Amino acid sequence: MAESGERAGAGSRNYWRIVRWIGILVLVLTPLVMTQISDQWHWTIGGSLFAGAIIGGIELLYELAEKRNESRAYRAGAGIALVTPFLTVWTTIVRDDGNGIGSLMLVMAAVVGSFAAWFRPAGMARAMLGIAIMQALLCIAIATAPSTAAMEDSTRRALFSGGFFMALWLASAAFFRVAATAGNKAARRPHLSTPPQPGW
Q: What is the mean pLDDT of the chain?
C-alpha cells in the first residue's frame, strides 16, 4: 500500500512537471508567433531565447526545491520566491524608468539570503521577511523621489508596484514559516516504532 501511494505521488508530480514545462514552452513561443501575425509585437528570436532561459532556470530551481522538501507549504514558498524575482526583472526591463538598479539589488539580496539560510524553511522565512522590508523601503524612496513627483501618476504607480511585490515576499515568508513550524512539530513528535526505555 505504501509503495502504491508513493508511485501515485511520483506520478502526480511528473504530471504537473510536464504541465509546467508545456506552459513554459507556450509562454516562450507565443511572442514569436504573435510577432509574425501582429504589428504590436516585436520579439526577436534572441529575446525569446533570453526569456526562455530565465523562465526555464526558474523552473529548474523550483524542481530542486521540490526535491529538497516534500512540504507543500515549502514548495509554495519556494514557488513564490522564484516567481517574484522573475516578475521584478521582467517589469524592470519593460518599464526602463531608471529605478531598475534598486530592484535588481533586491533580487541579489534574495539570492544571497537564500544561500545564507541554506534553503532551510526557518531561515528562508526570515530572509523573505527581510526582503519584504527592503522592498517597502525602496518603494517609499522611489515614491517620494523628486524625479517621480515630476511625472504624472508616477507616485501612485510606484506605491502600487512596491506594495504588490512586498505582498509576494510576505506570502513567501508566510509559507516558509508554516513549513518550518510543521517541521519542528514533526521533529518533536515521538516515533511510535521506538520501544520504551526501561527505567532504572
A: 77
CATH of the domain at 95: 1.20.120
DSSP result, 53-84? HHHHHHHHHHHHHHHH---HHHHHHHHHHHHH
By CB atoms closer than 10 A (0-12, 13-18, 19+), residue 28 is: buried
Q: State residue 114's pLDDT score.
A: 83
Residue 171 and residue 103 in one domain: yes
In the block, residue with C-alpha cell 514552452: 25
| 15 or 132, greater pLDDT | 132
Q: What percent of the chain has pLDDT over 70?
A: 74
Q: What's the domain range around 9?
A: 1-68
Classify the phi-psi angles of 3: left when phi > 0, otherwise alpha if psi is within -120 to 50, otherwise beta. Answer: alpha
User: Cα–Cα distance between 176 and 171 in angstroms, integer?
Assistant: 9
Q: How many CB atoms are closer than 10 A to CB 185?
A: 9
62 near 78, Cβ under 8 Å?
A: yes
- The secondary structure of residue 199, as a DSSP letter, is P
Separation CA 113–CA 198 (nearest Å): 46
pTM here is 0.69
Per the listing, cell 524612496 goes with: 141
The number of distinct structural domains making up the chain is: 2
